[in-house]
Amino acid sequence: MSLPKLAELFEEPSCEHNAKKEKAGCPKPTPGKVGGGCTFDGAYSSLVPIADAAHIVHGPIGCLGNAWNNRGSLSSGPLLYRQAFTTRFLNNDVVFGGEKKLYNAIKEIIAQYAPPAVFVYQTCVTAMIGDDLGALSKALEQKTGVPVIPVQAPGFTGNKNLGNRLAGEAVLKKVIGTQEPKTEYPFNINLIGEFNIAGEFWYVAPLLDQMGVRLICSLSGDARYHQVAMMHKANLNMMVCSRALLNVARSMEEKYGIPWFEGSFYGAQNTTEALLTIAKFFKNPELLERTETMIAQEMASIEPELSAIKERLKGKKVLLYTGGVKSWSLVGALQELGMGVVATGAKKSTEEDKQRIRELMGENAVLIDDGSPGNLLKLYHEKGASCLMAGGRNQYTAVKGRIPFVHVNQERDAAFAGYKGFLDLARQLDKAIHSPAFALSKLPFTLRPLS
Amino acid sequence: MSNEPLIVEDHNTVFDQEIFQKSFLGKKEFECGSTPEEVQKQFEFSKTAAYKELNFARTALTINPAKACQPLGAILAAAGFDGCLPYVHGSQGCVAYFRSHFNRHFKEPFSAVSDSMTEDAAVFGGQKNMFEGLQNALALYKPKMIAVSTTCMAEVIGDDLNAFINNAKKEGYIPQEYPVPYAHTPSFVGSHLTGYDQMMRGMMYYFTRGKEKTKPNGKINIIPGFDGYSVGNIPEIKRMLELMGVKYTILGDNSNILDTPMTGEFKMYSGGTTIEEVTDAPNGIATLTLLPDSTGKVTKECVENEWEQSLIGVTPLGLAGTDAFLMKVSELTGKDIPEALAIERGKALDAMADSNYYLHGKKFSIFGDPSMVEALVDFYMEMGAEPLHIVCTNGTKKWGKGLEKKLADTAFGKKAQVHNGADLWHLRSLMYEEKPDFLVGSTYGKQLAKELDIPLVRIGFPIFDRHHLHRSAIYGYKGLINILTWTVNLLLDDLDRKSKDFNHDFVR
User: Can you give the residue ranges of the Nitrogenase/oxidoreductase component domain (chain B) (predicted)?
Assistant: First the structure.
């Protein structure tokens, strides 16, 4: 099994998890405890939004069967990323090896779809029996002329975040820097770790256009293969989801000298801050002026409705359970709405994320490590919260507990980024907290006693 | 400034705005894609017979499969037992996927854990994970039993569940007498149905193997199988049996676990088949399997050889299906079918006649799990509809051949092609070759239905994109009316959507 630089990834220098005390890097899961997604899931979901490429899962039916189209990462054009390609590994393949089957499968994809590139994902079984994706990809590339990118992130390697990083490694090694844009432009940026969940990036893209900033690539929401290949031409990288793909920003700084900063599009203040950071970076007075005017307009457009909703949400408290950048950036957004955040998830957050949370929420901030339904419900009641914001696996638990719930992870239908997204976030919270269903829950009659 | 709410455009309209059109033009430079004409040309080609030939010549590649993996079935079977925590020995990601799958289909919490094997476990085996995992799961979630299945990873290493569980007991990680039924469920063999079969047998073995039968309990055992409608179906089965005065045991009754009321608290365990009921099951009259594909191999062996009962496959779906079920129960128990059920039958028949005009002669394609698909095909043929394409990614060869033979002798099924082992991309080519009037299947069929502009009757697993369908029974005469209602109204909606002003009628 050849896992590229696994040890190094565990020691990702920009990741504060790797501070002296936590040598193990990304935390290992506890056996027998409710756990989250795997490395494969992290890698697959990081790269699948590259919409014009074909993505094939080399493994048994389960890995793809469960992952197929399971995130709302939207594309404005090609839809090939939604086709579920797999080698559907069977018993015989385990015994005799699956390289030949994979080779043929990729050839079949290229013959039928002529994609700009094929991403091929390793899974537990195929890694364990030693199928060599590296050599196979090279051979295929030579034979067909189509880039074949091996993503070596089998599930057992660890958690989802490690998968994000291994996906980052794959594009760093084989994709970024392989193509030049046709035209020059003075203000170029990339976004890294923005996945266009529910199409939320489309609340931000027009803003960049209005500013006059050219987006070379968003890795990977609504991305195209060739955009990823040209990423090295950016002047600035913005890291949007902190821990995922951190290695991409850092390596691009080392390799191409592209500086990066960490920001968020959740909340009007965060969005303003991010856009201003971009505008100021280019040291162009007109660009800055355009940006400031635009921000003022955007703020004014959401203000009337926002202030009405704020009135209804004032003083309400939210229990936030999510990971990574969302843990601190959403805290900011919720506070901007005048809401309190009583606790936030920190399982996937870096030390730096945690520090930011403490800055925002105070030193007594409750950082949730045990995300089991029981613990979340207990915390909710202890802290007097009015809403749970978490991922889909907690939605139905919350409803049983008569707890208003707002989706925060990949399954959601609502887009939260940018100014309009912020308004949508406020609307979602308002609808959830004031759902009439909860008001009806008290029994209006007395039960017949058991005879 | 106006106080009107700001319109935040949804995806259907957002791209019409000028700013997006401009943005897309800018993006073109980076896309290096083909021209719209070239794309269109290829798209047209993909609808042709020549492409179909290419498509069917695929040997190594599967595109858009309509099946899931073994442990998914295993944990659904396990979830039907009282106080049982499904536990998967292997890597953690699989379980996170399964939980999402059931959350999204049943709109309910779903509890399951794994022992999170990682790289070192791949080298040294997973016994240590199992020890810790069982100990932690018991301490944290306090289940009455833990049902262990496996992922591919543990199977490739060759971990021995029996030995590991016994060692865990010997070394004191869990009490000696604590029940831990188990099943080996590698994803690279079979499908979720195989997993259901394995775990059901695991349960039966654990609680009944080697035990002498005591006195006959006069009950019928019922195995629901991998059924996305169990929440509606199991109560319907119970109701019919109670009307007949028949005593029964449902083996793997997940209908309360996957349909709990909003009470203000979260209960991890809620009902299900008790250990006493399983232990007593060998004393029953016979065992009925409602979806025979879920009990095809090892469960069958266990019922027939260990329990010395017959395992009878009958799916109570459609008119003849429900008739057969009731008659079989009557034959086995000696209880008559009451008039109340005959009246229900008459009402179902009445509904069928009412809707006949809209279904008779309609052509349909269908995909899903073999037993459910076969029962649905039978029902639609009772309505005079004609199956064109029947696609099962996970049927056995024997089943496929049997169905083909059966259909050849029917009035409405002569044209049907059975494609066993095919995927949904094959189905696309088939539907372009001969376009059906409607498609029956899970949410995975929605892209196909949209592309071909035909209605999708959502019956199957998983249904992620519609709410509450799974709460309805599709079994029994009442379930028949549910399926009929969904189908005929979808066709009528389609008719209304496509009608012009002059024929947009009030009465249908």
Answer: 69-491
Number of domains in chain B: 3
Residue A305 forms part of a structural domain: no
Q: Which residues of A touch B26 (CB under 8 A)?
A: 209, 214
Q: Give the best residue of B32, B61, B124 to mutate against chain A (max A CB count within 10 A).
A: B61
Write the CA distances from A80 to A68, A119, B33, B40, B491, integer angstroms.
12, 12, 13, 14, 30
Size of interface A-B (CB pairs under 8 A): 294
User: B70 contacts in A (CB within 8 Å)?
Assistant: 62
Shared-domain flag, residues B336 and B365: no
Q: What is the pLDDT of residues B34-76, one digit of tens each?
A: 888 998 999 999 999 999 999 999 999 999 998 889 999 999 9
Same-domain status, B490 and B458: yes
H helix runs in A70-123, sequence order: 91-96, 99-113
- CATH number of the domain at B293, please: 3.40.50.1980
Task: Name residues 437-456 of chain B within 8 A of A (Cβ).
Answer: 444, 447
Domain span at A360: 314-413
Per-residue pLDDT for B3 more than 80? no
Residue ending a domain, among B341, B376, B393, is B341
CB A214 within 8 A of CB A187: yes
Question: Each residue of B345-363: pLDDT tens digit?
Answer: 999 999 999 999 999 999 9
Looking at beta carbons, which residues of chain B come within 8 Å of A374?
Answer: 266, 268
Q: For residues A334 and A283, state if they share a domain.
A: no
Distance CA A91, CA A132 (A): 18
Please check whether residues B380 and B465 belong to one and the same domain: yes
pLDDT higher than 90, residue B26? no
Asked if the C-beta of B70 comes within 8 angstroms of chain A's C-beta atoms, the answer is yes
Q: Is residue B12 part of a domain?
A: no
Q: Of A290, A288, A168, A186, which Cα lies nearest the Cα of A239? A: A168
Is A90–B188 a contact, with Cβ atoms under 8 angstroms apart? yes
pLDDT digits (tens, 9 = 90+) for B128-155: 999 999 999 999 999 999 999 999 999 9
Q: Is B50 on the interface with A (CB under 8 A)?
A: no
Query: How high is the pLDDT of residue A352?
Result: 72
In a domain, B13, yes or no: no
**What is the bridge-based pairing of β-strands A85-86 and A118-122?**
unpaired
Are B204 and B225 contained in the same domain? no
Q: B341, B371, B406: which is the final residue of a domain? A: B341
Among partner residues A30, A116, A400, which is closest to B136 by beta-carbon distance?
Answer: A30
- B357 Cβ partners below 8 Å, 6+ apart? none
The ipTM value here is 0.90
Q: Tell me chain A's radius of gyration from C-alpha atoms.
A: 23
Set of chain B residues whose Cβ sits within 8 Å of the Cβ of A38: 91-94, 96
Distances (CA, A) of B163 to A395, B146, B182, B186, B209: 38, 16, 11, 18, 17
Output the average pLDDT for chain A.
Answer: 87
Range of the domain at B411: 356-498
| Confidence band of A19 (pLDDT split at 50, 70, 90) | very low
Please check the confidence at residue B104 and state whether its pLDDT lies above 60. Answer: yes
| Cross-chain residue pair B33–A78, CB shorter than 8 Å | yes
pLDDT of the residue at A13: 54
pTM value is 0.92
Nearest alpha carbon to residue A58 among A4, A100, A96: A100
Show which residues of B are catalytic.
Answer: 152, 156
Considering the domain boundaries, does residue B405 fall inside one?
A: yes
Q: In this predicted model, what pLDDT tens digit does every residue of B445-461 receive, in sequence order? A: 999 999 999 999 999 99
CB contact under 8 A, B117 and A210: no
Residue A12 pLDDT level (bands cut at 50, 70, 90): low
With respect to residue A302, please indicate whether it lies within any of the assigned structural domains.
no
Q: Which residues of B touch A114 (CB under 8 A)?
A: 42
Q: Is the pLDDT of residue A22 over 50?
A: no
The answer on B401 and B307 residing in a single domain is no
Q: Compare CB distances from A209 to B22, B135, B157 and report the shortest one's residue.
A: B22
Residue B408: both structure tokens together: 């050849």
Residue B313 belongs to a domain: yes
Please indicate, yes or no, whether residues A138 and A63 belong to a single structural domain of this protein.
yes
User: Nearest Cβ partner of A202 from B14, B189, B425?
Assistant: B14
